[in-house]
Design goal:
Layout (H helix, E strand, L loop, with lengths): L1 H21 L5 H7 L9 E3 L15 E5 L4 E2 L9 E5 L2 H15 L4 E3 L6 E5 L3 H11 L9 E2 L3 H5 L10 H10 L4 E6 L12 H4 L4 E5 L4 H10 L3 E2 L14 H8 L7 E3 L11 E4 L6 E6 L5 H10 L6 E4 L29 E8 L7 H10 L8 E6 L4 H5 L3 H9 L6 E6 L4 E6 L6 H16 L13 E5 L7 H11 L2 E6 L5
Length: 494
């Protein structure tokens, strides 16, 4: 019996060591959360040449050029044919492995400037089906196709497709970058679509974007095929902005061939999805994201297209799809971005009709189980009035001393609950809030801040942001994540 126990321990240690070797960048806090199931991981984290948070190709050991013009190309140039070369053997080996997996129809998680994508060959039905199964994604929720250069775009749209001026303007301004545009799907001589119906969900259009993250763009170019890639998370969960988030959601499902670890995503929100071709003289924003309405308006005006009307789905356009209506792009129909904890969205108003923060907390915690002290996560800016309304003196003191780099407070215990604060930066820096939003939902939801492996967060309270600039996209995500939205008196009076 002792001999068999020795063999069992040796096997477990060997498996755990192998996993730890792959997870070289994963912080100790994350390892504690998955330690009980580590032997189930078979996902490889592929290393890249990058010692700092960066979005420059050279820092990843990459160089880009335009094979068509045979000249050097800025990685921000939507060149005709992207050609990739390397100054790093580590990066080259990792990207070659990942590209081979893509061509074989397998799944690869990779970084983009927005969030991590779950990529597969966009031209293969079986590969797209693997994405849906891996994420448990609704079958009528279409996938966005990622390309590396203009040549790939021409291979997906009809041969006689004429790009209007609005669409051309937006491409020149925002590609490569966090902008997805809808295009009609081209068909071959046998009247078969270039992009499988599994990807488009039988829609006549397909969302296409050219990511600006050098690793993403290099992977697509090396694979030689467009890559269909939704966010690399379980369907409905907050989107992943680090490789650790991907492991957290998908690492145990044994669905990924590998993960390219490119560090933290720079923008932190998914791309803006725009339909600029369906309705004449109209640009429709189907999903707000990394490119704001104000940015789109400015570029259209510069191009002399000030007569074009911009409409936003759910705001200027009807925002409720019935059960039997298929969405034309992700984010239109289903609830997304939700942690396990209930999310309550707080709107601070100078209005005496609104409720008090004390009443909100009492109501939220009254439904918690009685066998433990409730865990409350709070997500807002360091200088938000919401901090004062919570009436936790130690938290108020912490926010006054915290810097921009201090994003997670200690856990503070009150008479009625435990509270942990996640900083979204400052009120005048919404881009920081966008970058931290999904990580904040995930971090507060996890058991790590609470030092309690058996209990996670009960409720997460987040403040609403003004819906202009990137705030529109942030609120789009928070509204989909939240179970309730409550108006609270800003002055805190009873």
């Amino acid at each position: 019996m002792g001999f068999f126990f020795f063999l069992y321990r040796a096997f477990v240690l060997r498996e755990a060591t192998a996993v730890l070797d792959c997870m070289w960048r994963v912080p100790p806090s994350f390892l504690r959360r998955v330690s009980s199931t580590m032997s189930n991981y078979n996902t490889k984290l592929l290393q890249l040449e990058s010692a700092i948070h960066t979005t420059k190709p050279s820092d990843f050991g990459l160089m880009f050029s335009d094979a068509e013009s045979n000249s050097s190309s800025s990685f921000q140039d939507p060149c005709e044919i992207l050609q990739v070369s390397f100054t790093s053997d580590v990066t080259q080996q990792s990207l070659e492995k990942a590209a081979a997996h893509i061509r074989a129809g397998e799944l690869v998680a990779f970084p983009t400037e927005t969030v991590y994508g779950l990529g597969a060959c966009a031209l293969r039905t079986d590969a797209a089906e693997r994405i849906y199964r891996a994420k448990n994604r609704p079958a009528d929720n279409p996938l966005i196709v990622h390309i590396s250069d203009r040549r790939m775009l021409s291979q997906l749209v009809p041969k006689d497709f004429h790009m209007n001026k609005a669409c051309d303007t937006l491409i020149k301004a925002f590609w490569p970058g966090p902008l997805t545009l809808l295009f009609p799907v081209g068909r071959n001589e046998q009247d078969e679509p270039y992009v499988p119906t599994t990807v488009t969900c039988d829609q006549p259009t397909v969302g296409i974007r050219m990511p600006s993250h050098p690793v993403a763009r290099a992977l697509i170019a090396m694979a030689g095929v467009p890559i269909a890639a939704p966010s690399a998370n379980a369907s409905g969960r907050p989107s992943p902005t680090t490789a650790e988030h991907v492991l957290d959601d998908l690492g145990q499902r044994q669905v990924l061939s590998c993960i390219l670890d490119g560090g933290k995503c720079d923008i932190g929100l998914e791309s803006t999805v725009v339909d600029a071709t369906t309705v004449p003289n109209e640009v429709r924003i189907l999903r707000p994201g990394g490119i704001s309405v104000e940015q789109l308006t400015r570029e259209l005006n510069r191009a002399g297209l000030s007569d074009i009307v911009i409409r936003v789905y759910g705001k200027d356009l009807p925002g409720n799809l019935s059960e039997n209506v298929k969405p034309t792009t992700p984010g239109m129909k289903y609830r997304h971005y939700s942690p396990e904890a209930r999310v309550i969205l707080i709107q601070l108003r100078e209005n005496h009709v609104c409720t008090s923060m004390n009443d909100v907390l009492h109501d939220a915690l009254s439904s918690c189980v009685e066998d433990h002290v409730p865990h409350v996560g709070v997500m807002c800016a360091l200088d938000s009035p919401l901090v004062q309304l919570l009436k936790v003196p130690d938290l108020v003191q912490w926010t006054k001393q915290a810097t921009m780099d201090d994003y997670l407070s200690p856990v503070y215990r009150t008479e009625h609950f435990q509270l942990c604060f996640y900083s979204l930066g400052y009120q005048d820096a919404p881009d920081i809030a966008a970058r931290r939003l999904f990580d904040g939902l995930r971090t507060l939801d996890a058991c790590v801040p609470w030092h309690d492996e058996t209990r996670t967060c009960d409720v997460i309270i987040s403040e609403s942001l003004p819906e202009h600039g990137v705030g529109l996209a942030i609120m789009n995500r928070l509204k989909k994540a939240a179970s309730r939205s409550i108006c609270v008196r800003k002055n805190g009076s009873a």
